[in-house]
Structures are given as structure tokens and as C-alpha cells.
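## retry 2 of 3
previous attempt timed out at serialization; input unchanged, resubmitting
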Amino acid sequence: MANKEKSSDELPGSNIRVLIVDDDEPHAQAVAESLERVGYECATANSGERGAAMIESETYDVVVTDLRMDDVDGLDILRKTKEELPDAEVILLTGHASVQSALAAGQAGASMYLTKPLDINELRAAVEKASTRMRLLRQNAELSRSLDEKFGFEGVIGSSPAMTKVLDRLKAVAPTNSTVLIEGESGTGKELVARALHQNSERKSKPFVPLNISALPDSILESELFGHEAGAFTGAVGKRVGKFEFANGGTLFLDEVGEMPMDTQIKLLRVLEDRRITRLGANEELDVNVRLVAATNADLEKEVQEGRFRSDLYYRLQVVSIFLPPLRERRGDIPLLIDHFRRQLSESYGRDVPGVSRGARQALMSYSWPGNIRQLRNVIERMIVLDSDGVLDIDDVPEEIAPPDGTVTSAAIPSGAGADALVGRPLSEVERYYIQQALELTNGKREEAASLLGIGERTLYRKIKEYDLKN
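## retry succeeded, writing output
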């Protein structure tokens, strides 16, 4: 009985491009044909020079090259491949095997060394082994891209119009090397945004180095930034690498940059313009390749007008500016943040806290949150730590946040409760249910409910009338 012919997707060489470089053209064609039969896409070059040119202009997964050729030999092809296509696998062929050539091939990065005359099965096995590695590299790269798309801005939580604008700007500026100034009140998540910028840039494999300017005395700030040599000042016992030098290749995050003394501002401006630093007590300048992200809760424009911050440094920092709105101006994001912190902190403390009661949500939604996201996180953490029944209820909400009149209902509704009951019901009933939930969570505030639902306020008003909802 004849073997069933395999589809192209089932062949071992599917989606793998192979280049055969050999100045013996009939041999190159024979190798190509033997690999094409098992699904590889093959190209041939009948000289080393032609092979090098093809490697420069095209992309290949595997390069099979003869070792000895008249113009450009196989080791040169190997080196060229590693230079132009660093992930590609190279298999060397030779009719004149020697220990020296085998060692040279291995040291230069060849994945396999085969002798002529070739055993076709041995060749196919070698190419398949190289192809397997290439497929794994592709899968890992694709997985990494998927994770970056899904989780690259994890923690920058929000679906409100204000946060959608922030996320759009983050995605646009993250892949660049532009200096970024993040403005916003304390607790709005400025360092989190800076880390997201770094994690979604080409610098993500290099250090992210944060430094809070306001936490350091003026006397040691320059040493922290630029480093010092032994004996540069009293107490400088040994050499110290500064944050700029330590962050080389990566991202330096300067928090509360508005607190920087004027003398240090001048030096920072010079570093940003020249991309060079000088350690305190040294004469030699050092090149640094650092992306700077700065943050402030101060009005830097006002600080410039009042002479406390240099205008030239301000404009140098403000290549791209990102403003993080306070939590009171993005209330529609509070339910998302509540659930995010509940899941995160429940896992951290090993607690089973499946939900937050309606009353607790209403209390948290009604509060003004002067400490912004940081304060909300701390409150959820305190509630989880002190909770005794597995549901964060109104009695778990701190006294300074819970409404004093105690009018909110405390009926416990775990996250997602009621959703199963809606399966198979008409779409109108599902829509009515979730609009009513949004109105209850926002205490009837239509603007916040509309933001939570992702619809316009006029649309919400029309739906309230259509479904005769209590508001």
C-alpha cells in the first residue's frame, strides 16, 4: 500500500529557509533537491562570494556551506552568517576533514561539521536538528511579543478616557529613546509608568535604575548621580559608581526632579547634552548611554517662572510629557483597581478573598483619595490583612473612608456574581443588568457609570429611560 503523501505543513522542513553555498554547482543542486523533498525552501550559491552577497541581502534559517572554495571559504561564510544573521545555524561540509578545521569550525560557531561524500540521511538529520532550534527561537520570540502585548503595561490599570490617553502615549513613546517627563500628584503611579516605558523599550534587558531626589541630602546627590573617586571628599574611602554609570545602556528614573538643587541641575543638563559624566574627583570623562525618565509632583513651569528650576533643563526634560490624572478624576477606574489589588494582595498574603461587597465598593468609590492609587492599594491591603470572613465588606473599610451615616447596603456580592445566571438570556436583559450594576457602584453618578461601561453619557441616559432603571 502506498504511503500517504504528507501535506507541506507536516514536512519537517516546513517554513525553514536553507542556503547551500558550494562552488561545485552540481553538488549544491543535489543537496538542495534532497532537502526540498522533505519540505525545506532552498536557495543555492555557486561561489563563496555569491553566498556572502545573498546572506547580506536575504534571510535564511540554515546555511550549508562547503569549507574549501576558491574565492571565499566556508569559515568566511560562517563568520559572515554570524555577523548578518546571528540566530541562523551553519553546517560546514568538507571533503578534507582535519582536527584543525573541525576545531576552527566549532570555535567560529558552526552547529555541525559533515564530511563528503555526504550521507543524505545524515545531512537531513543535521538540518532538522538545526531547524528545531530555529523553530524554538521563533516560538520564544513570538511568546515574548505576546507577553509584551498582553502584560507589558500591566499595573497601569484603567479604561477611563484619561487613562486610555495615557496608555496610547506610553505605547507610542516607549520604543523610542526620547527623554520623558511624568507629571502628577504623589501616589498616581509615576514610577510604575517609568518602569512600563523601560520594559517596553529595546533597553529592557539593561538596568532600570530609580533614584528619588527628595530622599537624598544635597551633599551626596552629585555623588549618587555621577559617582566619585577615592579621596574626592571627606569620607570618600573608595571609588563609587554613580547611577548614570550603573544605568548605562538602560533607563535612569529620577523621581521628584523638581527638588534638585540649582548647581546639580546645571551638571545634569550638561550630561543630557554631551552624554558624558565625570566622577567627582576625576579628570577623565566617561561616555554614558542612558535614557532619562524624570517625574515630579511639582508645577515645574511655575518653578521656572519663580527661578527655582532652570528653564533650559525643563525644556530638555520635557521632550515628551505624560500627565497622570489623580484618582478622583478617573473614578471609573476605581472598580478595576479594587479588583486588581484584591487579587494581587490576596495571593501575596495567601488569603482566599473572592469578592468585595456592594457596600464596600460604594464606600471606596465615594471617597476622594487624596493619596491616589498608593492610598487605595494600602487600604485594600489593610482590609485583606484584617478580614476574617473572606469577603471585604463595609465593616472592613477603614473608618476614615466609610461613610459616617452608614446608609450603604452591605449585602456581599463576590466579583462576577450573577453573571452565570445571565447565560442564555436575551441581550437586552444582560445589558440592563450591567447598567444597573454600574449605577449602583457609582451611587447613581451618570458620568462615572458611563465611563465604567465605556459608553457616552447621552447613551446611558437613553438606556436608563429605555429600561426604566432606578437612578
